[in-house]
Specification:
41% helix, five-stranded antiparallel β-sheet, alpha+beta, 18 helices, 878 residues, elongated, 23% strand
C-alpha cells in the first residue's frame, strides 16, 4: 500500500491564514460599503430637506412683494411761474413726465413736471378751453365740452411721442444727457438705451356737434362706444343739461370722410328736483343705461335711459343717512359703473347697481352701498378715479390728499405735507407712476409705485364686496375688469375634490386590500395584485382625457342609471353573498376557487336593475329629469314638495350606515340565539331577512326625514347659477379615485400582509371566524400602515392637477353640490401662470396659491405622521 504522507503543519496553517484573510477582507468591504451607503443616504436625506426648504423660500420670495407698502418718494418741488395755486384743470400725460393745466379764462400750458418748465403755452384767444360752459374730462384724456349757442365738442388730450434717429433733428443741448429738455413745443428725452424721443401735447377735437336747443348748457357727461356697423367707428353718447333743467341724450359719430358729425338727439326730460333746483352733479353709467343726478342736500335721483327717446325716473335715494351732511364731490369709478360720493363730514361712499332678487317683479337693478371710507372730518373737495385700475385720489378741504383702492377699501398712501402746506389739487399719471400736487407752497412731484394695490389680506381670505354683488362674497376671477383674488374658493375646491375622490377611492382600495390579504387564495392574489398596481402607471393626463372627453358625455346621458347603480350594485353583491351562504357547504367548498368570478358576476344583476329601474327611480324622486330638477329656478316653485327627492338622495347613504351600525348590533345577538341549532341554509335565510328589514327601515327613516326637511329647505343652492354641469364633482371623484386606488391598495395590502401569522392562528384557534380575526386582530395591528396608505392617497388627491384641469369646469363655486364644478389651487396655477405677466398681481397671487397648497400639504402630512406614530405605538404594544 502506498504510504500516506500527512499534510505538513506549515501548509495547513497557510490555508487557515488565507481563509481568515479572505473573511477579514470581506468584512472590511462590507463595512466600507455600509459607510458609503450611510453617507449617500445621509446626503440624500439632507439634500431632500434642503430642496424642500429652498422651494418654500422661493415661493415666499415671490409672494412677499404683494404685501409691501406702496412707495411714495419726493421727486421735485418748484413754484408755479404764473403764481396760481388752483388751476381749473391739472392733468398728467403718459408716464408723468409731461403735464398740462388750464385756467378759467381759457389759458393753458404744457410743462415738464420735474422742473415746471413750460413746453407749450396757449393764450385765451383761440384756446379750446375759452368760453367753455361745461366740461367733462376722463382720466384717459377723452373729453366733451360745451360752448355757447348749444355747441358740443368731443375729443381727447393726447401726448404724441415720436422716436428720432436723425442727429440733425435732435437739439444740440440734449447731447448725451438723459435729462429731459423742453424745446420747440416738445419734450425731448433720451432713454437708458440711448434712443431719443420727442413728446408733445395736442388737443384733438372732433367736428362741432350743434344742438337744436341754444339754451346755455350747464352740465355734460358722455360715454364712448363702438358703432355696430362695418366701420367700427367711435360713437359718443352725450348727456347735455341746460340751465332750464332739461336733459337730453345725443348720439354722435363721424360721417364718412370725417368732415362732420352724424347727430341723433333723444327726447328731453326734466331733472329739476321738487324745489326746482338743478343737480350739483350729473353722471352717466358706462353703457349709458342710467343717469345719476346728485344734489348737495344728499338726494340722488336715478333715471333709466336705455331708450334715449323714453327716459324715466327710476328711484330717489337719500345718501346722508340722517347725518345732515352736504354732498361735496362726485365721480364715476373706472368702468363707469360705481358712483363715488364725498360729503362734508369727510365720508366717501361707493354705490353700484345690483340685480334685484329673482322673485322680484322689478326689472332694473337696485343701488347698493358697497364701500365706505372715513378719512377725516373735513369736506371732500376732489375725487379722481384713475384710468388704469380702481384707485381713487382724494383731496379734502383741510388740504390732505389720500390714495384709496375701491375693491378692498385699502388706504394706499397719504401724501406727506410740509408745515402749513395745504393741497388744493392733485393729479396722477395714467400709468400711476407719478403724482403732481398744487398747494399754497407751490408744486410738488412724487414718484409713486403700487403694483399690487388690488391685493390685500382681507381680499385674499375674507369676503369682499365686489361691484354688482348684493353682499360681500368670496370670489376668484383673475381675468375680470375687477380682479378677484380670494383664495378661499380655491382652497374649498381643493378640499372638495379631495373629499369626493377619497370618498370613491379609499373604501374600495382598503376593502380590496383586506379581501386579497385575508380571504383570497394566494395564487389568485398573485395575479390580481400586479394588475391593480399596474393601474398606477397610467399618466394623469391620460386619465383626465379619458374622463373628460369620453366618460363625461356617457355619464351625462346615463346619470339616473349611474346614481341608481351606486345603491343597487352593493345591494346585488350582498344579496348574492347571502344566496352563496344558502348553498350546501360542499358546493361552496368545491366552488371556492371561483369565488372571485362569482363576485364579478354578482355585479351584473345590480347593473341590470339600475338600467331598468333608473328612470322609474328618477321619476319617483324628482318627478322629471334630474337635470331639469337641478337647474330649475327655485323662485318659480309654488311649493317645496319637489325638494323631497333631493333630501332622500342626500341622506340615504348616511341613514343606511347608521341603521346597520346601530340596529344591526342589537339584532345580531337576538338572531344568533334564535338561529342556534338551525341548519346552515335556514340561518343564512334569516340573516338575509334581517338585511332586507334593515334596508326597509333605512328607506322609511330617510323618507320621513326628507319629508320634514322639504317643508322648510331645499337641497339645491339658490346662490349659484350652475347647479348642474356635465363636468362635475362626481366625474372628478371617479377619475381621481381611479388614480389613487392603486396607491392606497398596494400600501394597505403590504401593511396587512406584514401582520404576524401567529396572531391570526391564535385568534382562529380561540374560535374566532376569519372575518372577526381580520376586523379585531389584523386591522388594529396594521392600522399605522393603513393610515399611511390613506394619507398617501390623500396627498395625491390634494396635489392632482391634470385630472381636475381636464375633467371639471374650473368654476370657483363654493358649493358641496356633487353635480357642479369647482376650481382647485393646483388647477388655477396650471391654468393661469402661463398667461400671467411676470411680476403682476395675478402672477404673485398664483405663487401665493402654490405656497398655500404647500402649507396645506405640510400641515396634513404633519398631522398624519403624528397620528401614524400613535397607531404604530399601539400596534407595537399588541
Amino acid at each position: 500500500m502506498p504510504t500516506e504522507h500527512p499534510t505538513p503543519p506549515f501548509m495547513s496553517d497557510a490555508k487557515h491564514f488565507t481563509g481568515r484573510q479572505r473573511r477579514l477582507k470581506t468584512r472590511s468591504s462590507v463595512r466600507f460599503g455600509d459607510k458609503i451607503s450611510r453617507v449617500i443616504i445621509t446626503i440624500g436625506g439632507i439634500g431632500t430637506i434642503i430642496a424642500v426648504l429652498l422651494i418654500c423660500v422661493f415661493l415666499v420670495w415671490e409672494v412677499l412683494p404683494l404685501f409691501r407698502e406702496p412707495m411714495l418718494n419726493d421727486a421735485a418741488a418748484y413754484q408755479e411761474p404764473s403764481g396760481t395755486v388752483n388751476p381749473w384743470l391739472l392733468e398728467l400725460a403718459d408716464d408723468g413726465q409731461l403735464g398740462w393745466s388750464a385756467e378759467k379764462d381759457g389759458r393753458w400750458r404744457a410743462f415738464h413736471t420735474e422742473t415746471g418748465k413750460t413746453i407749450k403755452e396757449h393764450p385765451a384767444e383761440g384756446s379750446p378751453w375759452a368760453n367753455v360752459q361745461a366740461l367733462r374730462l376722463r382720466p384717459a384724456g377723452e373729453l366733451v365740452l360745451a360752448k355757447p349757442e348749444g355747441k358740443l365738442y368731443v375729443g381727447r388730450v393726447a401726448a404724441k411721442t415720436k422716436f428720432v434717429s436723425d442727429p440733425k433733428e435732435i437739439p444740440p443741448s440734449l447731447s448725451e444727457s438723459t435729462t429731459p429738455l423742453a424745446d420747440d413745443g416738445q419734450l425731448w428725452s433720451r432713454t437708458s438705451d440711448g434712443i431719443v424721443r420727442a413728446t408733445q401735447l395736442a388737443v384733438e377735437l372732433e367736428p362741432e356737434i350743434k344742438l337744436e336747443d341754444t339754451e346755455e348748457i350747464t352740465a355734460v357727461d358722455f360715454v364712448t362706444r363702438i358703432s355696430s356697423g362695418i366701420s367700427k367707428t367711435p360713437e359718443y353718447l352725450i348727456l347735455a343739461v341746460n340751465k332750464a333743467g332739461e336733459a337730453r341724450l345725443v348720439t354722435a359719430s363721424k360721417k364718412r370722410g370725417g368732415a362732420s358729425m352724424k347727430v341723433e338727439s333723444g327726447k328731453t326730460f326734466n331733472i329739476l328736483d321738487d324745489k326746482q333746483r338743478l343737480p350739483r352733479f350729473v353722471r352717466m353709467s358706462g353703457l349709458g343705461d342710467f343717469v345719476y343726478c346728485v344734489w348737495e342736500d344728499g338726494m340722488l335721483r336715478r333715471y333709466l335711459t336705455r331708450d334715449p327717446n323714453a327716459p324715466k325716473l327710476l328711484d330717489q335715494l337719500d345718501l346722508r343717512d340722517d347725518t345732515g351732511a352736504a354732498l361735496t364731490a362726485c365721480e364715476m369709478l373706472e368702468g363707469l359703473t360705481t358712483l363715488l360720493v364725498g360729503d362734508s363730514t369727510g365720508r366717501i361712499q361707493a354705490l353700484f347697481p345690483v340685480n334685484p332678487p329673482k322673485d322680484s317683479e322689478q326689472n332694473y337693478p337696485n343701488m347698493m352701498r358697497g364701500h365706505e371710507w372715513k378719512l377725516g372730518d373735513s369736506p371732500v373737495k376732489q375725487l379722481t378715479a384713475t384710468a388704469r385700475n380702481r384707485s381713487i385720489l382724494t383731496v379734502d378741504e383741510a388740504g390732505k390728499s389720500n390714495l384709496l383702492y375701491a375693491t378692498n377699501e385699502r388706504v394706499l398712501a397719504e401724501l406727506p405735507q410740509a408745515a402749513g402746506e395745504k393741497f388744493t389739487r392733485v393729479a396722477i399719471s395714467p400709468q400711476q407712476n407719478r403724482l403732481l400736487s398744487v398747494s399754497n407752497q407751490g408744486r410738488r412731484v412724487w414718484d409713486y409705485s403700487a403694483p399690487h394695490a388690488d391685493v390685500s389680506w382681507s381680499g385674499l381670505f375674507r369676503p369682499v364686496w365686489y361691484e354688482g354683488a348684493d353682499r360681500p362674497i368670496y370670489s376668484w376671477d383673475d381675468h375680470g375688469t375687477e380682479p378677484r383674488y380670494s383664495l378661499i374658493p380655491l382652497i374649498f375646491g381643493t378640499l372638495k375634490a379631495t373629499f369626493y375622490s377619497m370618498l370613491f377611492g379609499a373604501p374600495l382600495a382598503l376593502l380590496a386590500a383586506l379581501f386579497t390579504s385575508e380571504f383570497l387564495h394566494p395564487n389568485v392574489k398573485a395575479r390580481i395584485k400586479p394588475v391593480i398596481e399596474l393601474m398606477a402607471s397610467l399618466p394623469s393626463v391620460v386619465l383626465g382625457y379619458v374622463a373628460g372627453m369620453m366618460f363625461a358625455p356617457i355619464l351625462s346621458e346615463i346619470l339616473p342609471e349611474a346614481i341608481s347603480a351606486m345603491f343597487l350594485v352593493p345591494f346585488s353583491i350582498l344579496t348574492c353573498a347571502y344566496l352563496w351562504q344558502m348553498l350546501p357547504q360542499r358546493w361552496t367548498l368545491q366552488a371556492g376557487a371561483w369565488r372571485v368570478a362569482a363576485i364579478g358576476f354578482s355585479i351584473l344583476p345590480g347593473l341590470w336593475l339600475a338600467k331598468v329601474l333608473g328612470p322609474a327611480i328618477e321619476h319617483l324622486l324628482f318627478g322629471k329629469s334630474i337635470k331639469m330638477w337641478l337647474t330649475e329656478d327655485l323662485s318659480d316653485l309654488g311649493n317645496r314638495s319637489s325638494a323631497w327627492g333631493g333630501w332622500v338622495l342626500l341622506f340615504l347613504p348616511l341613514i343606511l350606515l347608521l341603521v346597520f351600525w346601530f340596529l344591526g348590533r342589537f339584532m345580531d345577538d337576538e338572531l344568533r340565539s334564535r338561529t342556534r341549532g338551525m341548519s346552515r341554509e335556514r340561518a343564512a335565510l334569516c340573516d338575509w331577512g334581517k338585511f332586507l328589514l334593515l334596508i326597509l327601515i333605512s328607506f322609511a327613516a330617510t323618507a320621513m326625514l326628507a319629508w320634514l326637511l322639504q317643508l322648510g329647505a331645499d337641497p339645491r343652492s339658490a346662490e349659484s347659477g350652475e347647479r348642474y354641469s356635465r363636468s362635475n364633482s362626481l366625474l372628478v371623484g371617479i377619475a381621481m379615485g381611479f388614480a389613487i386606488i392603486p396607491l392606497i391598495y398596494t400600501i394597505a395590502d403590504d401593511a396587512l400582509s406584514t401582520v404576524p401569522n401567529h396572531l391570526r392562528s391564535a385568534s382562529l384557534g380561540a374560535g374566532a371566524t376569519p372575518w372577526q380575526t381580520a376586523i379585531r386582530i389584523v386591522i388594529p395591528t396594521a392600522l399605522s400602515g393603513l393610515f399611511s396608505a390613506v394619507m398617501i392617497g390623500l396627498g395625491r388627491a390634494v396635489g392632482e392637477t391634470m385630472i381636475v384641469l381636464m375633467t371639471v369646469g374650473n368654476t370657483p363655486i363654493m358649493e358641496f353640490n356633487i353635480f357642479n364644478g369647482f376650481l382647485t389651487l393646483s388647477a388655477s396655477i396650471a391654468r393661469g401662470l402661463t398667461e400671467a405677466p411676470e411680476g403682476s398681481s395675478q402672477y404673485r397671487v398664483l405663487f401665493l396659491a402654490a405656497l398655500t397648497l404647500f402649507s396645506l400639504t405640510f400641515i396634513i402630512n404633519t398631522v398624519a405622521e403624528s397620528v401614524r406614530q400613535r397607531f404604530r405605538k399601539r400596534a407595537y404594544e399588541l
